[in-house]
Amino acid sequence: MADYDRQLQRIVTEYRRAEQEWPASAKEIARWAIRTGRFDLRAPTVERVLAREIAQALREEYFTDSKGRRVRAKHPAKARRNGEQITLWDDMRTAPRDHMEKAFGLRRRHIVGECRQVKADVDSYNDAHPAERLIQMVLDFTKDVEEAELVERSEEIEADELYEEFEAIA
User: Fold this and answer.
1) pLDDT band at residue 48, thresholds of 50, 70 and 90?
2) Distance of CA 1 to CAs 7, 20, 63, 110, Å?
């Protein structure tokens, strides 16, 4: 996968060297890459692209649990099959605990990695722009999560009240 990502990164570099509009959307860069013959879908690439799209679709499948929470249904976990490391998807409503522990751990490591990267990016930007006010990045999300849960609950209460008003009128 790393080689494929490097190929795509090279396409972006070539796009910029060709003095195309920048900043640009991924769609604009893709159109340019196809139009200029820099990207051609071959069978293994088609399989990878489809696998990525399937994984994305699985990530976006949700259900409402018994307490009214919107919950992701499908979760990936690393596993070994025939000596090869692969990612297996399972539905949390039927998945064994072992799969879910691995899946939640994988997700947490991904979040930590994202936080580590944004910290490095912010630190680098701040170092490169010492005359400007520092961009502060708080990586403790406790209050953010609590606030999001409160907003969600208040929206649910508001929706229930609107429904009751509608029922009273109807």
Assistant:
1) confident
2) 10, 27, 31, 17
